[in-house]
Design a protein that fits this description.
8 strands, about 130 residues, Proto-oncogene - Oncogene Product P14tcl1, 2 helices, mainly beta, about 10% helix, single chain
Length: about 130
């Protein structure tokens, strides 16, 4: 039996806006759900770091394009604690620029089963 062909994957979304916890929306009204968030080093490891250490926290987020039931947008205040911005805008060089001007590298833009996926990794401060 032949596997079902996936539709061709276009460009990543131009913009992703926060709509409610874990949900973003792109310029075409498609919803993107945060399915995984990895923060390195862990808070425990960060707390054990030697005094004066300058380890940058690395944030990697996986979002899948999944239709969800619309609701009223909520405040993005909790996103700041997680390191996620209220908006990402496509930037040259396979990157997004967040509202705080930090850059996020597109680690992967592909498909898992039939779902479009983006994996974004926050670049260190000062990256251009």
């Amino acid at each position: 039996m032949e596997a079902e062909a996936s539709p061709p994957l276009g460009s990543p979304p131009c913009c992703l806006w926060f709509r409610r916890p874990g949900i973003y929306e792109d310029e075409n009204g498609r919803t993107w759900v945060t399915v995984a968030l990895r923060i390195s080093p862990s808070h425990r490891a960060w707390g054990r770091g030697s005094p004066g250490s300058t380890h940058e926290i690395i944030v990697t987020v996986h979002v899948w394009q999944i239709p969800v039931h619309p609701q009223m947008p909520r405040s993005p205040s909790h996103l700041l604690m997680l390191g996620l911005p209220p908006k990402w805008e496509l930037y040259p060089g396979r990157r997004y620029q967040a509202t705080d001007s930090r850059l996020w590298e597109i680690v992967d833009h592909g498909q898992i089963n039939s779902m479009e996926q983006l994996i974004l990794k926050r670049l260190p401060s000062g990256s251009r």
